[in-house]
Structures are given as C-alpha cells and as structure tokens.
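hey so u asked for the seq, here:
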Amino acid sequence: MTPSSGRGRGLKVVLDTNVLLSAWFWEGNESRLVESVEEGLLEGYSSEQLMEELYRALRYPTFNLTPDEVESIRGYYLLLFTIVRPEQAVDVIPEDPEDNKVLECALEAQADYIVSGNHHLLNLGEFRGIRIVTSAELMKILQKTNRPKP
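ran it, structure tokens below
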C-alpha cells in the first residue's frame, strides 16, 4: 500500500520507538523532531506493529504510567503519524528481528529517513535509499536545509 499524501510538506521520517519514548519523557532533539511533525515540517510515519511496540514499552514499570496515561500517549502518536501497513517483509537484522519492522515501515512510507538510537539500525547507515540517522544527525541536516538564503 502506498501512503496517501502526508500531513506535512517536508521530509518523510519514521521515528523508532526509542525516539518516541525519549521525545515524550525528555526535552531534546527527539522532542524537537516530534514538534516538527506536529508543525508539518516533517511527515511522520509509523505502522501498527511499531505502535504496538510503543504500547508495550509504555507499560514497563520503569515509566510508572497509569493505563489511561499509556492510552493517551499512544493515542497522541496514532493521531500524529500516518499509519502504513507494510506489505513487504525484510530480514536484514538477524541479531534483533524486531528491528526489521522499522525498515518495513520506512519502505512502505517511502521515507527519506529512519531516526533511531538503535545500533543495529544505525550500523546499516542506509537501507534501500533510506538514510538511518540519530535524532542529532537529523536535526543538523534540518538546520542546514532550513537556513535562510543570503
């Protein structure tokens, strides 16, 4: 399935679960990227599989969230991102097969970037034309491309 037009006019991005968790709980590059999706500067994409992974992670005792808080956070991200249904399975990361879901989502969304803190994904650097970067790296890229012209 090819996604319909995204919410923004910017680069298409898939933010890994670790990025979404960091964005929610801490101020930093991750939260600025989510704000960029909110503002329509970036087009954010996710999948049902990645949203389920987020849902499981939010229920970890570490975060000490109530069921209502978990549902609220999940609902926010479901509204914010265009949800795609990957039709193509990949098996690129045998060390952690769950990471393949991020690649599948990005392929379906025809994303420009995957943003992750996961070393399995970052070590790839690029997958079928999709760059895999940290949140800090994408922020630098965005700053370079958004500088006013002299």
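The helical segments are 17-25, 29-38, 48-58, 67-80, 100-109, 119-124, 135-145. The domain at 12-145 is CATH 3.40.50.1010 (Rossmann fold).
lmk if thats what u needed
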